[in-house]
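During the reporting period the student researcher (J.K.) took over the structure-prediction task from the postdoctoral fellow and processed the backlog of single-chain submissions. One of the processed entries is reproduced below for the supervisory committee.
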Amino acid sequence: MELEKLEQTCNFGDYLDKALRNQFVFGLQNRAIQSRLLEVRDLKLAKAKDIAFSMEMSNRGADEIQGSCPAYPVQHIIATGKKKNKPTINQRKTACYRCGNENHLANKCRYLNTICNHCKTMRHLDKGINLDLNKFITAKEEVSYCEMDSLILEKVLDKYLKVFEPGIGKIEGLQAKSTLRKDTKPVFFKARSVAFAVRDA
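J.K. obtained the following structure tokens:
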């Protein structure tokens, strides 16, 4: 009993045995054992333990002989941590089927026009596919979409020619007005670097 371990630091004196006995008797869950212990005059802690143990063992033995197992009610449930809420549909992470990453959807994937090293088809990477490599697959006629994609790219470049011109662009037909305080000082900001994928070779 944990209370017996704490008795060394407490100054209960002669009352210690009575206090521990009372805690033991009134803390019992089995009402039959508790009422039997309350019937005994001048009950000591050691005797209370012996009676409770022998009654519990005899009850278990009787249950085994009769083939029944008692159902004990739940006394106390201890929480093991914070309750985890199930994520809503918007919060669930959906992996991109092209590359396998969870931070974007397939329509925003940067590997949209990349050729897979495993199956040699476009629009996904080999880590984004889930294939059982032990199964045999019969190949159908291969179709190349590279020419089609280059035609679409040329149309987009021709349509938005000014956007893709080298150099800094300018806005025409709009006026802007800036109001500054008298004590405003100019601040230099470094230009943003262009990603390697976008730079000209």
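The committee noted the following: The two ends are 78 Å apart (CA to CA).
J.K. will present the remaining backlog at the next meeting.
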